Amino acid sequence: MPTPLNSLKMYWQQTERERLMLKMQQRICQSLDLEEILQMTVQDVREFLQTDRVAIYRFESDGQGMLAAKSLASGWELPETEASLFQKYVQPYQNSGLEALIESGESVLVEPSEELLAQLQIQAHLAIPIFRGKQLWGLLIAHHCRSPRQWQQPEIDLLAALAMQLAIAIQQSELYQQVQQLNSQLEAQVQERTAQLQKALEFEAMLKLITDKVRDSLLDETQIWQTAVRELTQVLNLKGCNAALYDLEQGTSTVCSEFVKTDENKKIPPIYGRVQELGKFPELYCQLLQGEYFQFCSLLINEDRGPVSMLVCPIFDDRGVLGDLWLVNDAAYEFSEREIRLVQQVATQCAIAIRQARLFQASVAQVEELARINRLKDDFLSAVPHELRTPVTNMKMAIHNLSTMALSNLIVSTNEQNQKRIAHYLQILQYECEREISLINDLLDLQRLDTRDQPLSLEPINLSEFLPQVIKPFQVRANNRQQSLQLEMSIDLPTLCSNAPGLERILAELLNNACKYTPPGERIIVAVSVQASNLLFQIVNTGVEIAPSERSRIFDKFYRIPRADPWKQGGTGLGLALVKKLTEHLGGLIEVGSSNGKTCFSVFLPLHSELNSTAG
């Protein structure tokens, strides 16, 4: 039966074991530093066992090992060759014959050689396996050196329990390290992605900078080339850059622009204006003509330049290859994919800008040619009508004299039938002569209005007296054609300040037009009203409509609506063009509307014109 003293000692040992286990568990929960946990464990175990050495030996994957932690009592330090001695000491524990015992988790009491025990001064030893899953991670080892000792089962159980707690700490530490590693990898990926994003933003900024400067080149092809090579050289920090323009018909490439950085040590010789035949370098230009880039290192011996690295990128669009860009840098330099994409996009922007510049230049040339033709037309219209007027006037006088002679029976030798024929032919000649004179006058009037050299005199116009006088000549014509012509205006219309001859010409042309195209039995209405600060003149004729496709062209010179003249009178096609010019000359506006079987021309004229009497 145990004595009270032994019972007290056993109780104290049990309490210490529980305290040590609790301390170990708390340490595992509070710390993720495996080295600290291992070191504190060997220290606490050595104090609890009152022994001389406690160590934790860790096996490596290559079969070697190392002391992961140790606690030594004073006077029982290990020799300097502790690593090699412990390697010999733990070698039996790596024996395959011990695997079953190790996997069982029981203590392993393998006796080292007497020589090794003597070298390490071991009187009693204890080794407990530490597992990580099913793999042997290491050993928890205790040495008693001062005297022989028999290890008690509670002590062995304690170390076995501690080994299990250490396995938990090891697993927890490794998981923490994995998390830390994953966090580090994630942070590295975030930093890498951030760097990529930053580079992408810098790339976009560089591309926008170059693109904006290329587009701001005022559609000047030379300036576009110069801007592209200069900006690429500066943005990519190149030694130099040049652009070449292709002539596919001649099969040549001509350097049209270049930019070279100043370097006193190595200079790139200028090649501006150099012409190269594409056929002499098929290995280069076949690839470029297919829209493909390439980079290479030029090893050609050049005293000034030396070996260099080059990137060649074609400038092309859907219509073909326009030229190429050559980028030059140090021989060891390699253009990155990002830089290549930048150059390709700049080349694309150059192709767009060059096409736009050429279209613009073609447009300018067309405008200049049209202006030249227009000047020739103006010169023709200024000279020809004057030249035509003289012979036409003579023709009119001769026709008048011939008519007088026929009517005076001066031609007595003709019979009555011939006289009728003569009278008919004279009538035709007189009508056609009047048409020719009208055409010439219209051309002269249009020319004066186009060149703004016709003075404009303004005067007050009493519309109550003015309008009936304008309409009166057309009443007889309308009655003869079975048309109804009526004037609608209020008696209190304000006085209009305008040019009377011009207004009369406008209304006469519109009435003439209405009489010409209005079928028999339909109406022609002239209506006048006030709209804000304008007077509105409306000439409406029923029984006829103008197709929408024709309305935009009826004010063009010499344009006549096909198959719209029921009276077959013909015309020059200048009447409405003249009306529009006269209306604008008077500061007004003309519009046309046509629907529901009627057509309406609306002329808006300002009541109080701000044009002075000398306006042109």
Q: How would you summarize the topology of this molecule?
A:
Layout: H1 4-30, H2 34-49, E1 53-59, E2 65-72, H3 82-90, H4 99-104, H5 114-120, E3 124-132, E4 135-144, H6 153-215, H7 221-235, E5 240-247, E6 252-260, E7 275-277, H8 282-289, E8 294-298, E9 308-317, E10 320-330, H9 337-407, H10 416-451, E11 459-461, H11 463-480, E12 484-488, E13 496-498, H12 500-517, E14 523-531, E15 534-542, H13 548-551, H14 575-585, E16 589-595, E17 598-606
Parallel strand pairs: 12-14
Antiparallel strand pairs: 1-2, 1-4, 3-4, 5-6, 5-10, 6-7, 8-9, 9-10, 11-13, 14-15, 15-17, 16-17
Helix pairs in contact: 1-2, 1-6, 2-6, 6-7, 6-9, 7-9, 9-10, 10-14, 11-12, 12-14
**Beta strand %:** 15-25%
How would you name the oligomeric state of the polypeptide chains in this document?
single chain
Instruction: Please give the radius of gyration in angstroms.
Output: 56 Å
* Count of individual helical segments: 14
Average pLDDT for all residues: 79
Name the shape in a single word.
elongated
Tell me the helix content: 40-55%
Strand order of the largest sheet: 7-6-5-10-9-8
- Which stretches of 5+ consecutive residues score pLDDT under 50? 96-102, 611-616
Give the class from helix and strand content and strand pairing.
Answer: alpha+beta
Report the sheet with the most strands, covering strand number, pairing sense and barrel closure: 6 strands, antiparallel
The tally of strands reads 17
Give the termini distance in whole angstroms.
Answer: 142 Å
